[in-house]
Design goal:
303 residues; alpha/beta; Rossmann fold; eight-stranded mixed β-sheet; two-stranded antiparallel sheet; 16% strand; globular; Mono/diacylglycerol_lipase_N
């Protein structure tokens, strides 16, 4: 059974969510912004390559799927990598990019059985980020279990390179964890942390979503009818961080500035949310965010 947009609209308003009325006047992006988006997504792509998150500290970042050429040309090095050490199998790396004066925390998307369990662990938990704020348990746990060692590495690296930008990125599950990690890092003093979240599911209740939105420096991307950003469902009390950078170009197509709408609001039916209920048939849209973002993902479904 398909749920129509009016029914979704009624459900959202009944739960007390604000529906934007001026979303059609979404702003356009500039060419230099597009270049930045296409660059930072390559760090999210690199987190899927096992050679970047398994015992590779000190090595250069590389992508065998050839989907991070700008990262490779920048000579970025892995400062710290993590995987297979927690119940959630949170995986990724901290990288140092001297060419772009940045320190990057990148989270891998879903690959293992433990990742998929985190994806569907929908109950709320209090992350202690603000009054009334609640986060999805699996996503928050994925960050919390690696927070101490990752934060220590970030603090040490920033002490050596104090003028560098801190950037947190991820795709899919990685984007969900990145969103909460960025919010937490900002609350711990890294207030200018930039977030680039590609294909993120909903991670927060309205209070937490508003809190993260107010922090600013958030770039949350969706693509056409990608089903992942439609989960968890609105009816479960989850909403998105604003704004939404909605990519309208088809799969496997080059994205231009005209192909991105910048939409405001935790619930906005002019973007991905308005393309209907999440369907498995729509999953091809999940892979293509400026490029095949998860091209390096390994075969099978390890524990």
């Amino acid at each position: 059974m398909h749920i129509t947009i009016p029914i979704l609209f009624s459900a959202a308003t009944a739960l007390g969510y604000a529906i934007p009325t001026n979303s059609l006047q979404a702003r356009e992006i500039a060419t230099n912004e597009l270049s930045q988006f296409k660059f930072w997504v390559q760090y999210a792509a690199a987190a899927y390559c096992e050679n970047n998150y398994v015992d590779q500290a000190g090595s250069l970042l590389t992508c065998w799927a050839k989907n991070c050429p700008q990262v490779e040309s920048s000579g970025a090095t892995i400062v710290y990598d993590f995987s297979n050490t927690t119940a959630t199998d949170t995986s990724g790396f901290v990288a140092l990019d001297k060419a772009n004066r940045a320190i990057i925390l990148s989270f891998r998307g879903s690959y293992s059985v433990r990742n998929w369990i985190s994806d569907i662990d929908f109950p709320f938990v209090d992350p202690d980020l603000c009054d009334g704020c609640l986060a999805e348990f699996g996503f928050w746990s994925s960050w919390e279990l690696v927070r101490d060692p990752v934060s220590a590495v970030i603090n040490e690296t920033l002490s050596i390179y104090p003028g560098y930008e801190l950037v947190v990125v991820g795709h899919s599950l990685g984007a969900a964890v990145a969103t909460l990690a960025a919010a937490d890092l900002r609350s711990r003093g890294h207030i200018s942390t930039a977030l680039y979240a590609f294909a993120a599911p909903r991670v927060a209740n309205p209070a937490l979503a508003k809190h993260i939105t107010t922090q600013g420096n958030n770039y949350r991307f969706t693509h056409t009818n990608d089903p992942v950003p439609k989960l968890p469902l609105l009816g479960m009390g989850y909403v998105h961080v604003s704004p939404e950078y909605y990519i309208t170009s088809p799969n496997n197509a080059t994205v231009s500035t005209e192909d991105i709408k910048v939409l405001e609001g935790e619930v906005n039916f002019e973007g991905n949310t308005g393309t209907g209920i999440p369907l498995l048939d729509d999953f091809p849209a999940h892979h293509w965010y400026f490029e095949e973002t998860d091209g390096c993902k390994g075969p099978g479904l390890p524990f």
